[in-house]
């Protein structure tokens, strides 16, 4: 059986890289190990997998995903998320099914009465498996008689009644989906959302989308195809105004296109003889022009203005892509009351017209025509325009007199332009839950023998200051506790989940393990959830996990195995990096701070959070000077600004 696994992985490309020893160890020992050891193998694979994603090591990630499918099947865990990611990485469905069958064959061999190898399953379990195998064989015999689409894998036999979207392509001004079987008009359920300037035609049908989400852009609409949920494929057509959409079902294909205007309007205009020839002459010319321009449009996607933010004497337009100076046109105009500077570029403004006032001055951002965004700056006095292009943002503002502009004003403008700016509308929609560690009967770590310096008090004060700072910046803030009360670990993340929070930040203070290390152990650390990979991380987690012994029983082995969600872990790691960096930037302006780094550890308080979640150890309460520092209100104010800067930075780069 071990030989089978070895030959199997030789058959598929092996690229172990930095994880060669761990993967070799898994291949040689996983199946023959006991259940507890197999769980540890599975946890190790998940941890390595997260690291491969963070390191963008695609080859290693694929090898780890293959083994995660095998370990998931042995441990009776859901392997669908791993299978989907393997598909996105280019691994065929037949290869994925073969991975699953490898486990089935090994189980059959171990449970066979003629098997001479030592089985890892009990006799009662093997008897159950033998009876199941007979049923499966009977079912498989029946399924084999049915026509197959692509391969003879076990899963396709069981699921050959499902509809699969094998591929999709843009053809002229339409999208064609290739299916594994015929789809009927009755199978598709459609509805329309028709808002001003935002028309959406939404269609759903039961099926599986191969290869992940797809988007296609036409002249006046775009089509997005996605897996809405595990059983449903959703097709959304976006347009500025209502357009007629046709679905053509033919020979295992679904074609989505805009209904031609001639078909729609000619019957209605038959009686209007004057209008008919005009429309017949104009429409074909437009169609030819759109076809001629198609290759140019395909080279570059439309530019979107995602949002507009007001700062001091200017506005910042956040764009979907970079914009160059030669793509921007500027001209001025004047009437009896106002001087105007008009800025235009090709693009699409998300949302409605936007208007900003600066005393007597005014800036308006609008969709001038379907393809042009226009910004108009108006003032009763003559002025010069300030324009700055940086990354994916355009800053436009008033510069009344270049000669009178001071150097300090220039510096302020540069700082404003370089700062990670988020719109107030964006921030107002973000909910951040702040969790002050411990509380009530659980005092947390103590900073002195007298017990006057308690972790629960320091972190509560810091958490409230952080919340106040985030509120000033426009975020919605909620606290797991705002007073000295005890809260179960699981209720903390449950609160955040129930409130549909966007971030979860838990604040704690660290402590040295013994008196000898109390004088030397110091530093700020930011943790995200993952199996511990260092002794320091393990000890930090053990200290915080002691808060509520009853909670440990709540988290079964199954929940430990399932808490590692790739997207959440990667996002939490990014948040931790941004927060740690900005904490150091702010606090080091006044204090000498030791960088404890960004680390991963299995903190129970983070288990179950359905959003990016981090735990900050703001310093060592047991250190002679750092313990007094973290209790200082001045330090807590600076610390709060650093954490808030980290939150701003995270949202800016991960919108």
Give a brief rundown of this model:
The chain is an alpha+beta fold. The protein is 40% helix and 26% strand. Mean pLDDT is 76; it is low at 1-17, 104-135, 139-160, 262-299, 402-410, 412-419 and 544-564.
Arrangement of strands in the largest sheet: 22-21-23-26-24-25
Question: Distance between termini?
Answer: 48 Å
Structural class: alpha+beta
Number of contiguous helices = 21
Major pleated sheet:
6 strands, mixed
| Poorly predicted segments | 1-17, 104-135, 139-160, 262-299, 402-410, 412-419, 544-564
DSSP strand tally: 26
Strand content: 25-35%
Choose one word for the global shape: flat
Mean pLDDT: 76
Rg calc: 31 Å
Tell me what you see in this structure.
The protein has 655 residues and is α+β, with helices and mostly antiparallel strands. 40% of the residues lie in helices and 26% in strands. Strands 22-21-23-26-24-25 form a six-stranded mixed β-sheet, sandwiched between helices. It has a five-stranded mixed β-sheet with strand order 5-1-2-10-9, with no helix packed on it. It has a five-stranded antiparallel β-sheet with strand order 3-4-8-7-6, with no helix packed on it. Strand 17 (361-369) and strand 18 form a beta hairpin. The chain is flat and about 80 Å long. The two termini are 48 Å apart. The model is unreliable at 1-17, 104-135, 139-160, 262-299, 402-410, 412-419 and 544-564 (pLDDT under 50).
């Amino acid at each position: 059986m071990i030989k089978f696994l070895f030959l199997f992985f030789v058959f598929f490309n092996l690229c172990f890289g930095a994880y060669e020893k761990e993967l070799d160890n898994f291949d040689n020992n996983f199946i023959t190990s006991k259940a507890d050891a197999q769980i540890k193998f599975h946890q190790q694979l998940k941890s390595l997998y997260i690291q491969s994603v963070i390191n963008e090591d695609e080859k290693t990630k694929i090898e780890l995903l293959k083994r995660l499918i095998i370990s998931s099947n042995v441990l009776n865990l859901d392997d669908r998320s791993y299978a989907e990611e393997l598909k996105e990485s280019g691994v065929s469905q037949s290869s994925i099914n073969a991975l699953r069958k490898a486990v089935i064959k090994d189980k059959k061999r171990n449970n066979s009465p003629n098997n001479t190898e030592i089985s890892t399953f009990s006799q009662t379990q093997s008897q159950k498996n033998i009876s199941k195998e007979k049923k499966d064989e009977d079912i498989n015999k029946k399924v084999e008689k049915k026509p197959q689409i692509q391969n003879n894998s076990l899963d396709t036999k069981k699921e050959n009644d499902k509809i699969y979207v094998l591929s999709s392509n843009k053809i002229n001004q339409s999208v064609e989906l290739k299916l594994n079987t015929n789809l009927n008009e009755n199978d598709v359920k459609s509805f329309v959302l028709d808002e001003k300037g935002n028309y959406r035609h939404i269609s759903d049908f039961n099926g599986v989308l191969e290869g992940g989400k797809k988007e296609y852009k036409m002249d006046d609409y775009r089509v997005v195809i996605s897996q809405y949920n595990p059983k449903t494929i959703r097709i959304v057509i976006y347009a500025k105004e209502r357009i007629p959409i046709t679905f053509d079902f033919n020979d295992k294909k679904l074609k989505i296109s805009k209904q031609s205007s001639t078909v729609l309007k000619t019957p209605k205009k038959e009686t209007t003889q004057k209008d008919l020839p005009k429309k017949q002459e104009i429409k074909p010319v437009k169609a030819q022009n759109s076809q001629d321009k198609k290759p140019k449009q395909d080279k570059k996607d439309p530019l979107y203005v995602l949002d507009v933010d007001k700062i001091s004497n200017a506005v910042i337009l956040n764009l979907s892509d970079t914009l160059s100076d030669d793509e921007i046109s500027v001209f001025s105009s004047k009437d009896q009351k106002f001087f105007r500077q008009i800025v235009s570029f090709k693009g699409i403004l998300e949302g409605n017209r936007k208007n900003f006032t600066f005393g007597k001055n005014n800036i308006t951002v609008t969709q001038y025509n379907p393809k042009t965004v226009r910004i108009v700056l108006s003032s009763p006095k003559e002025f010069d325009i300030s324009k700055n292009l940086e990354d994916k943002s355009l800053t436009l503002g008033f510069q009344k007199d270049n000669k009178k502009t001071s150097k300090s004003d220039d510096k302020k403008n540069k700082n404003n332009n370089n700062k990670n700016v988020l719109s107030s509308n964006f921030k107002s929609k973000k909910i951040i839950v702040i969790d002050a560690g411990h509380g009530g009967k659980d005092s947390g770590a103590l900073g002195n023998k007298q017990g006057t310096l308690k972790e629960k008090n320091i972190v509560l004060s810091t958490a409230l200051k952080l919340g106040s700072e985030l509120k000033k910046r426009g975020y919605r803030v909620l606290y797991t506790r705002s007073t000295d009360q005890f809260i179960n670990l699981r209720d903390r993340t449950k609160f955040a989940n129930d409130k549909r929070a966007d971030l979860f930040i838990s604040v704690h203070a660290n402590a040295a393990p013994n008196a000898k290390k109390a004088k030397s152990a110091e530093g700020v650390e930011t943790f995200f959830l993952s199996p511990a990979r260092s002794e320091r991380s393990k000890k930090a987690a053990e200290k915080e996990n002691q808060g509520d012994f009853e909670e440990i029983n709540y988290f079964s082995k199954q929940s430990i195995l399932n808490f590692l969600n790739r997207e959440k872990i990667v996002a939490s790691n990014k948040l931790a990096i941004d927060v740690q960096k900005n904490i150091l930037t702010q606090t080091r302006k006044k204090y000498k701070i030791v960088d404890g780094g960004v680390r991963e550890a299995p903190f129970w308080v983070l288990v179950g959070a359905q959003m990016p979640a981090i735990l900050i150890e703001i310093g060592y309460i047991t250190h002679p000077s750092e313990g007094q520092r973290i209790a200082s209100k001045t330090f807590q104010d600076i610390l709060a600004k650093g954490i808030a800067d980290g939150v701003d930075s995270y949202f800016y780069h991960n919108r």
